[in-house]
Amino acid sequence: MIDKDMIITDFLKQYPEHVHILTEAGFPCIGCFFADGETLEMGCLEVGIDVYDLIDKINEEIASSEGDNAKQEDTPKFTSGIKE
């Protein structure tokens, strides 16, 4: 799970499939060099949104996607038994 002190570029590297949350929130710094040293909290201050709301949304989506992946991996794979 992530927290408000996570560096934006670290988030982008670790969770690229969730970058849309930051873009939808209006983060202007995703592609700029400031993202290398700026935390999610600092980005939220720039945009004017509550950091804890953003963190909650991100963590919920991460947990949901990890749950979906676990369900897929736990699903047995059946074959028809037909040999070619």
List keywords for this structure.
mainly alpha; 84 residues; SP0561-like
Structural account:
The longest helix has 24 residues, at 51-74. By secondary structure, the chain is an all-alpha fold. The chain has a single domain, classed as Orthogonal Bundle (SP0561-like). The chain has helices spanning 8-14, 19-25, 40-47, 51-74.
Overall morphology: globular
Return Rg in Å.
18 Å
CATH-derived topology: SP0561-like
Mean pLDDT: 82
The portion of residues forming beta strands comes to under 5%
User: Uncertain segments of ≥5 residues (pLDDT<50)?
Assistant: none
Distance linking N and C termini: 46 Å
Question: What percent of residues adopt helix (DSSP H or I)?
Answer: 40-55%
| Count of helical stretches | 4
Q: What can be said about the biggest beta sheet?
A: none
Structural class: mainly alpha
Question: Which CATH architecture?
Answer: Orthogonal Bundle
At the first level of CATH, the class is Mainly Alpha
What order do the SSEs take from the amino end to the carboxyl end, as H and E? HHHH
Number of strands: 0
Total of domains: 1
Sequence-ordered SSE layout with sheet pairings:
Blueprint: H1 8-14, H2 19-25, H3 40-47, H4 51-74
Summarize the structure.
This protein has 84 residues and is mainly α.
